[in-house]
Sequence to fold (545 residues):
Amino acid sequence: MPPPQPPPPNTGAALELLVHGVGGATPQEMLGDPRTVRVTGDATAAVYRRTEDAHGEKHPERYRDEPVAEAYCWSGLTSGNGSRALWLLLLPFMVVNLAHWMRPTATGRTRAVRLYGVVVRLVALSLTVLLTAAACEVALDLVAWQCAGTSACSERRSWLGFLSSHQGGWWSQPGRRLALAAVVPAALVGLLWYLSNRTWSAYESQSPLDATDADACDPDGAAEAHGPGAPEAPEARDSANTPATANTVNTPDPAGSPAAGGSPGSQASPASSGSVGPQASPAASRSAEPQASPGFPCGVPAPTPPAPTVRPALGRPGFWYGRRLVARLRAAHTAAGFLTVAAAVTVAAARHDRTADSPVPQVLGAALEAALVLCAVVTVWVVCRRGRSESARDTRLDGALITYLPGSALALLVLAVLHAGWSRPAWESSGSLPGETAFRFLALTQGLLVVILALVARSLYRRTPEPRTTLYGLGGPSVAMLACALGGVMTGGVAQRVADWLDGPGTPGMGRGSIIEGPPVLLSWQASVIPVLLLLLLVPVLYLV
Fold:
């Protein structure tokens, strides 16, 4: 931990910040004065003062006995119409974002810090795939594949009549039903992109008020920017521009010449390691004497540069500025969503084409699947390549990447829809949609990522134990596991509820009374946890009441 900084000298009036509770309050009530003025903020959240205290900093002599009172009103952040409850659908993402900020204190463990950030970003990416797969399960599997492919189910739902396989219409073929149903999850991904782009434009892309480009020090290893093109640390720039010190001798050496691939003066003499021998030059014997610095008289040593100031995390240039990273992550998550929808459509059509007599459908299906895998690999690479930086404000923007990556994924989705919509008269849908093993693979992947995150976090905590760290360094992994559990329970609950509604009085996949297969068994098991969770949540609610 860095040594505590001395408090700044008192140069003006003290400030007293008043913050209301969840119930909310007006600035007039908090300040006890009907005359108030807004100092900063907007209609959603703002800081207010009394009218007579609006410019209190300019008159510190008036506030020697009492501070300047400020009221922070944030009730607009939690109030609004009923549509704000839809943000609860993004609850798993809100929870997993906490795992990044719960990383244990790290000193000199750059690789471990980067690995921690990479694993957290991969967990968040898996939640995007899980959310999109849940929408595909409802729209593609339960509605378009199972219910529309079963006469007993489609007859009960008149709005599915034109998709019914027994109507013999143009939309009756399974591939075309899947192509039409893919509009629903694709629209969901587009909506998430729109919301993310709007918040990015309003918050992350706004340059902080501090004009400093880089922090002077990052003692806790919080800077995660890495990879080609990462902003260079100030220490590296300073060391690169520092002239040769007493331990470096500018002796001519073939290995240090430009022709040998080095730079003049880059080779240290044996005196730099403390040994003096016959081969030592006269310059080396005077290495212990103070060296003159450019701009100072001969024999006068250069002044020692001041120690870098450790700035609090909230005051670092890159803490509030995530323009580049958030844009990259938005492009990667959007591409992952589109690729998930494209894979759900392509896998079913490609599996049917493997039984076709002509090799052309098989080749087209295999080529499309290969393109989806390649784009998925690029998406994962984008997520893993760069982390956030607090010590440097990265003002660049990867315009080509944030444009072409989601654009390529959307183009592959269009090709998948066209491929599935090709006429296949002999194709009939039965059972559940192929590819249900993806949910099992997602669950195993998330479990493995959480285990890796726990090992990294525990290693960081053991290297720098901090008593204030939550759960001995395992707070971040616990939160990540909670986010994955919330995503699984929400996915299973929605899928099971829609299946029960489509199946009517029967239970999906259970006996003769059911008319559809229902969701995968894993989702049904996850949905069965909901009543238990509600009972557990009832205890603290009753206690608070």
Confidence is low (pLDDT under 50) at residues 211-296. The radius of gyration is 31 Å.
